[in-house]
User: Fold this.
Amino acid sequence: MSEKTYSILIVGVGGQGVILASELLSEAAMNAGLDVKKSEVHGMSQRGGVVSSHVRFGKKVYSPLIPAGSADVVLAFEAAEGLRWAGQVKNDGLLVVNTQRIIPPVAFTREYDYPDDPIGEAVKCAARVRPIDGQGIALRLGNVKAVNTVLLGAISGELPISGDIWEAVIKRRVPRGTEEINLAAFRAGIEAVKSEAAV
Amino acid sequence: MGKIKQLPEIKEPTRMLLSGNEAIALGAREAGVYFASAYPGTPSTEILETFARLPGVIAQWAPNEKVAFETGIGAALAGARTMVCMKHVGVNVAMDPLMTFAYTGTVAGFVLVSADDPEMHSSQNEQDNRILARFAKIPMLEPSDSREAHDFFKLAMAISEKFETPVMLRVTTRISHAKGIVELETWPVPDVGGFKRDPDRFVMVPEYARRRHHEVESRLAQLRSFSEKMPINRAEPGQGAIGIVTGGISYQHVREIMPGAKIFKVGMSNPMPLDSIRKFAGTVDRLIVVEELEPYYEEQINAAGIKCEGKRFFPVEGELNPEIVARGLHEAGVLDDHLPRLHPVDVDVLPRPPVLCSGCPHRTVFSALKKIKADVFGDIGCYTLGALKPLNALHTCICMGASIGMASGVQQVGGSRHPVVAVIGDSTFLHSGMTGLLDAVYNKVPVTIIILDNRATAMTGGQQHPGTGHTLQGEETFAVDYVELARALGVKNIHSIDAYDLDNVIKVVKETTSSGEPSVILTSRPCMLYPVKKQPEPYKVVLDVCNGCGACIRIGCPSIITIDETTEKGLHKVEIDPETCTGCRLCVQVCPVDCIIPVSESEVEVVQE
Assistant:
């Protein structure tokens, strides 16, 4: 087993499913025989705030927080959040960003502007950026809620966790009756990240 | 709702990925805890929510932390192992019984879990409760991850029974809400020994209390030598001539940055193992202390005549993280190469402050208070968000229950030219509002108190309380009647109104604030999230009529968005998100041109056409 500690930062807006995604990732890493720590802050998450979850795994993990600028992967569920956290990606790391935009009320009172091209700007901050139309892919599969598993599929190629382990965790953790659609979503995420060119 | 859904019993040793809070709950069950009480508060809430689901125990919400603590004392003196849990500021509320329970001591084991919130992720201050354990002269353990949270709880229970004292298990947000792998064991059958009278010990009148204080001091002396021998206080071998003293989450950050460092890890931090630290200091040239918040270790180590440095390099404010620890160690000259940099690109993305939910009944009340330009004294809960833009309709927030007393104080000195109103949530009112209301009646203060009754402890996740009719473990129970309660406290002017009726809220508040007597307004509508998320009942904007005035934008509803289409004057029109609009009708009531209608009606029109 390698000594490397993997650091995955999952970010988004309250209600998008960031916490569930980090749960699935943590459980998969544990089932792969790795030490795991994960940290996020509860409290404001259901009220439109920014949600970020740190997931770390490897032979032995100390801090539950990812040291600044050293994430192997940042997975952003929302475009502007992809930009906000892009600087946390390490030099040769990967930013996978869902193209969905969620515009907060502060943008409607003209106090702040939502960025015109958040993904374009994120490219300046992170070495490898992969935009994914998670909503579009999940909708085509018949359940927009499967965007979670699409995005996990999209980052899975970077991680030392086998497909079998992933599939077992997904089957166990998603709502009953949605297992097949979520497995299909996970596989679609793997394909999407291969086919959609890096920006 | 019926009985709470129980978790399966642990029948053989198992490994699980658990949050610190879950680990504490399971550690408590393994330690034979039979009774637990708490008041919800971030980051402590999930401890009791998890414990309540374990078969074979009693777990309950108390109206406040003081009551939780006192019921806990009773259970422990009756011979049942006990846990009480609260956030850091909750311990302030429980401080009165805590200080004297330290004198009587306990019969069965008693563990107080204090969950502190460095960085104030969801709190009004970031006090360091390690100081309170020392002040109360009780032992304290500080776990540094989920595994230790579980293991240390069991140790805390053993220490509590060995020394007949309450013990504090002190955790922080990054312990409570971080997950890690925990080894679980099987459960004992909890035992209740029964209450045995012992007035010399349990009746703290001066004569007996003096003797007990002596007991406390001799117990502390024994605990000091016990702490020196505790394996959780240990020197971890490493390289170099520098030694680092650390504990809690800070230990993990230090190990992250310097995996090979010589570390003295503090696990039991009251009393401090000062002799062991002195011995450790003798093996190094220089001693650095890394701890979050106050210089709790540092001051005691220095006071013992052991030279060390700490807060010179590390902040007192906020939580630590690997980056801050690395910077401090670098400044101290301990670390040569700095950590990976923060990314050089300066990214400035718009903020996402938390907002009241779509359809939240508090929004209408704040819109009314803003309209009449009231000075609004606020309290602790979701409704504190009424202070934020664009509502700006709440003007103070100190602690649980403070709204009523503060509004009364302002009125007593004639300190406001505006209508004076206290706003307080249902759970907060039952926690600490009743005595403030009694004070207002007794002292004849002309103050208006609005109880925002959304039938849940919403901010912490919708927990039950004495006004909801259900207990933590899902049994039906009496639900307090706020009108009857206010009447019994002597309030004459009481109004029970619909939180969604803007004009009526304005009318009634105007009336009570000019009535010259203490008044209570109960505004009732359920929370949008709890116990079940409200399904959309959307309204829509008739764009041909919308004049772009922005009145609906200024209520700060996350379902209302401006669009590119403009009026002839160039004002942006608005749309309503049909996925999230719950149909509260506040925007309908503020719209001057009546262009907001139910989606269902508009569909009927289409069919008729």
